[in-house]
Amino acid sequence: MKTDTVTRKKNGAEEMDLKSGKTTPISQNTGVGKSAVSNAAKFRTDESTESKEDPHLKKDRFSKENIIVFITLLGIGLHLALRYFVASPPFTIQLPLIAVLVLCGLPLIYDLALKAAHQEFGSDLLAGISIITSAILGEYLAGSLVVLMLSGGRVMESYAVRKASSVLEALAKRMPNIAHKKMPAGTTDVPLKEIAIGDVLFIYPHEICPVDGVVVQGHSTMDESYLTGEPFNISKAPGSDVLSGALNGDVAITIEATKLAVDSRYANITKVMRSAQQHRPQIRRLGDQLGAIYTPVAVAAALAAWFLSGDPIRFLAVLVIATPCPLLIAIPVSIIGSISLAAKRGIIIKDPSVLEQIETCHTIIFDKTGTLTYGIPDLTGEIIGPGFDGRTVLKLVASLEQYSKHPLARAILAAARKLDLHLEEATEISEPPGRGLEGTVLGRKVRVTNRHNLVEETRVDEGSLPPQSTGLECAIAVDGAYAAIYRFHDAPRSESKPFIAHLGYKHQFNKVMLLSGDRESETQYLAGLVGIKAVHASKSPEEKVTIVREETRAAKTLFLGDGINDAPALMTATVGIAFGQNSDITTEAAGAVIMDASLARVDEFFHISRRMRSVALQSAIGGMALSALGMIFAASGYLPPVGGAIAQEIIDVLAIANALRAAIPPKTLIDF
To answer: Residue 1 and residue 22: Cα distance in Å, rounded?
Structure first.
């Protein structure tokens, strides 16, 4: 067996010079040494948190609302102190509150006036009317409490969003900001932004990979669970792809960068997460629509209370308790909470509006390869030639295939493992492009190729071979004689059939379709295995778009795919979900990306969406109902303006607390 050119040790990693092939312990390597290793670990943990923090989150801590809240609390505190602890004239007692209304109330009213000028009559307009009315009526304390309610609600929203979006902060803090670049004079630590495609980088034990790349030296394992949700360490050897953000195992490896840091997988995750956080989804606009109805109703109720009682204070009291902060705060908090929960499950929501749309989709369309299947061939049939034994042939072929990177090699090796076959060493191995694989195993010449090559290059008669069937196949010759035909199919995921079966009665999908570019026979074969009746095969990307567009006209659609040729269909469907392992183009086209290629994660996404909508509407409508109850008491004269402001603050806290439930994972998110 050919030995690896990279040496591995149990205790301590070694580095191999690219040109000489000599190995050197990392602790002795010129310019790297133990100190460099310790520094490499140190920069991940000791780096300033502020430099890694999301600037949008940092800005929130010093926003105008924070300053307004501070001044308002100070003014109310001084007012209470002068009233109850210092003998002061009545006008002096009111001065701190007047200052609050001037310094803090006017900026808020100005903002609301700008919105009104753009015909944005949201429910926060009630707060502005309340502030103006309280100043006119001399109810300065009530007006100051409304200022505190409005600005405090915005601060609470920012805080709740930060808590719900902690995944963004974790993503930013987790990544290194330097990389160990191989230079002619040795290894140098350089900023991540200076790494170019083609640069050779060292990844030391237990370090996080800084950019996407390919292994050029070394054998190790990497933990990619943070990116994919897959809880396994993935073996890495020369030629293996590595992802930025993956954690290296116990052995150092050398990689060649294939993408810039800003274009690598980890950076893209961070970007789409931030974009999702800032995106204004449709359900938020639903909140504005509810507010547009609620605001005139509240104003009418306040005017009616004033007219019937003749007391303008009741007008103010109704407006104060009517200010629907739950409507303004609870919906976006529940959305961000759901985005955070999804991210923890390996689901990146690029367009938050899909959280609302999922429940309205009644047609689901699947791509085949890599979506309902593993995208990996499975050995499903063996036709053994005369004079040969199946176990013997499989042992010979698997012993040869262990040296191949061909997709079918994995299926053959898996079949050999199932039979617990002991593999032998192969020699004289060659794999010319398009000609198959050949070598010597136990002194016997083994050839794995297609039937055309087998007939042309050996003494095998084509008439002795079995007829061509659906799926993939390979032909095997041993010592120049026909030994076997192996047939392969892309194995369906173990979860595909139960997942499809539960879509109708659990998620209200009335139509399930399979849309594929593969041959009719292959597509129908899979459809029969997983239980799909509506099948479209041999379709080009353009034809897929046409079919999806037609289905979307009839009912809202959800498309699930993973290949580059799925991108147009993903964009055409009402909701597009991509398995994010294979194509950046696909993930750009989708509204949500499932990092772990699993239908269980898709089901989790369905439940997160349903739960988000439920929690958002509970918080918003529940808060409005409590406010409406308070309006009745205020209109009847039982709730003064100050009491209404305090009651509204309590309602706000309850609504936000309920909305934050969207970020808390339930016991289970799967129902199949």
So the answer is: 20
Report the DSSP beta bridge partners of residue 474: 486
Q: Distance between CA 99 and CA 612 in Å, rounded?
A: 41
- CATH 3.40.1110.10: which residues of the chain? 375-492
* Burial environment of residue 363 by CB neighbours within 10 A (0 to 12, 13 to 18, 19 or more): buried
Q: Which two tokens stand for residue 376?
A: 């990996």
Ramachandran bin of 43, using left for φ above 0, alpha for ψ from -120 to 50, beta for the remaining angles: alpha
CB of 630 within 8 A of CB of 648? Answer: yes
Q: Are 365 and 572 in contact (CB under 8 A)?
A: no
Residue 234's beta-bridge partner residues?
222
CA 57/CA 63 separation, integer angstroms: 10
- First-to-final CA distance of the chain: 46
Coil, helix or strand at residue 40: helix
For the stretch 53-57, contacts whose Cβ atoms lie closer than 8 Å and that sit 24 or more positions apart, written own/partner, are 53/169, 53/172, 53/173, 54/168, 54/169, 54/172, 54/274, 56/274, 56/277, 56/278, 57/162, 57/165, 57/168, 57/169
**152: which 2 tokens?**
């405090």
Q: Which residues does 82 contact at the CB level (< 8 Å), separation at least 6?
A: 88, 92, 93, 96
CATH topology of domain 375-492: Calcium-transporting ATPase, cytoplasmic domain N (3.40.1110)
Each residue's pLDDT tens digit, 554-607: 999 999 988 666 777 888 899 999 887 555 656 677 889 898 788 999 999 999
Residues 6 or more apart whose CB falls under 8 angstroms from that of 62 comprise: none
Class of domain 14-30+196-259: mainly beta
Strand residue runs (E) in 326-398 = 347-349, 363-366, 373-384
Q: Let me know: does 522 contact 490? Beta carbons within 8 Å.
A: yes
Looking at the DSSP assignment, which residues form a beta bridge with residue 233? 223
What are the tens digits of pLDDT across the range 472-522? 788 999 998 899 999 888 888 999 999 999 999 999 999 999 998 877 878
Contact 267, 584 (CB under 8 A): no
Q: What is the pLDDT of residue 121?
A: 63
Q: CB 458: neighbour CB atoms within 10 A? A: 17
Contacts of 434 (CB under 8 A, 6+ apart): none
Contacts of 578-585 with C-beta under 8 Å, sequence gap 24+, read 579/370, 579/371, 580/348, 581/228, 581/370, 582/370, 582/375, 584/268
CA nearest to 446, candidates 466, 414, 474: 474
640-643: long-range contacts at Cβ-Cβ below 8 A with a sequence spacing of 24 or more? Answer: 640/142, 640/313, 640/317, 641/134, 641/139, 641/142, 641/145, 641/313, 641/316, 641/317, 641/320, 642/139, 642/141, 642/142, 642/145, 643/317
Q: Is residue 15 classed as helix, strand or coil in its secondary structure?
A: strand
Angle at 167 between CA 164 and CA 168, to 5 degrees: 100
Residue of 426, 440, 482 whose CA lies nearest to 457: 482
C-alpha separations of 563 from 507, 589, 623 in Å: 25, 11, 44
- Residue 57 pLDDT level (bands cut at 50, 70, 90): very low
SS3 assignment, position 339: helix
CATH number assigned to the domain with residue range 350-372+493-595, chosen from the 4 options 3.40.50.300, 3.20.20.70, 3.30.200.100, 3.40.50.1000: 3.40.50.1000
At 624, give phi and psi (nearest 5°).
-65, -35
Residue 172 CA to residue 54 CA, distance in Å, equals: 7
